Amino acid sequence: xxxxxxxxxxxxxxxxxxxxxxxxxxxxxxxxxxxxxxxxxxxxxxxxxxxxxxxxxxxxxxxxxxxxxxxxxxxxxxxxxxxxxxxxxxxxxxxxxxxxxxxxxxxxxxxxxxxxxxxxxxxxxxxxxxxxxxxxxxxxxxxxxxxxxxxxxxxxxxxxxxxxxxxxxxxxxxxxxxxxxxxxxxxxxxxxxxxxxxxxxxxxxxxxxxxxxxxxx
Length: 217
Ligand SMILES: [Zn+2]
Description:
Blueprint: H1 3-7, H2 24-28, E1 47-48, E2 56-61, H3 64-75, H4 82-97, E3 104-108, H5 113-119, H6 123-135, E4 143-145, H7 157-164, E5 168-170, E6 179-187, H8 191-202, E7 207-215
Parallel strand pairs: 2-7, 3-6, 6-7
Antiparallel strand pairs: 1-2, 4-5
Helix pairs in contact: 4-6, 7-8
Zinc ion (ZN) is lined by residues 12, 14-15, 17, 23, 25-26.
């Protein structure tokens, strides 16, 4: 952090105005990824259904201030954005948690250790930590990325799944029969969540669902 950043109030990641890491105007403008209640006959664009992954839910549409804030969190060293983003995503997580019970823990999607060293943190783990403490569930940081993967951006779903094969492993066992809520920052095709869910299911998890702050729609 430079001297100017210490002297100035933080700039909003959404609009650049000084005052907060994410200002109230930008937070209010974050568009929910879930279908409005009066459109429940159409497919909910916020929900993805997989195989090992039962279902994945995202809180917001990946656009505007949400996109800029997640970009800053992931690539701009703005770890302070994890708390307001996670806080704002709480209602969507609550809806997802209503679908699972028993021994439930939040499990962050891991980044490769080399990338984590460059960034200084795993943004999904930061988000999962805030969410876990807010909902009073344990955080199980058990997944590891065993090899770096090519960037997923621009790849088809099939190419993404191939790219991710064998990319994840378990650092420790999960309690047999437990449920895991995978947490990631952005949900694109759900290929990453699906690959993580396969590993968790093979490691003893009975149910795996996914949660992301934002979804590409
Ligand atoms: Zn703003």
